[in-house]
Specification:
This protein has 103 residues and is of the alpha+beta class. The protein has one domain: Alpha-Beta Plaits, CATH 3.30.70.100. α1 runs antiparallel to α3.
């Protein structure tokens, strides 16, 4: 299974409450409804285990995919282009890591 992991911080001046409200109301239900996505989760980082250090990323998104090519088809739609644009307004230089599950 292909897993897309997205790591990001919020842009300066973006409210955590505003981002999380948008993620819950718009991003999560829309992306979870895509045919290419088996499961989509957004996680807020809390701490670095065994350390007082601040996590390097505030948020982690995990997308379990049926198919990476199908995801590209899905994100090419006008609705997903709108969602992607809204996400880019919140996220500061997100990193998209394509991964493969070992199980």
């Amino acid at each position: 299974m292909t897993v897309l992991v997205v790591l990001f911080n919020l842009k300066s001046g973006v409210s955590r409450d505003d981002y999380e409200a948008w993620a819950k109301a718009v991003d999560l239900p829309t992306v979870n409804a895509l045919a290419s996505v088996d499961r989509f989760r957004v996680l807020r980082s809390q701490s670095v285990l065994g350390s007082e250090a601040t996590p390097p990323y505030e948020y982690v998104e995990i997308l379990d995919l049926h198919s990476l090519p199908a995801l590209f088809d899905d994100i090419g739609t006008p609705l997903m282009q709108k969602i992607a644009s809204e996400f880019q307004a919140f996220a500061d230089a997100p990193i998209f890591i394509v991964s493969e599950s070992l199980t």
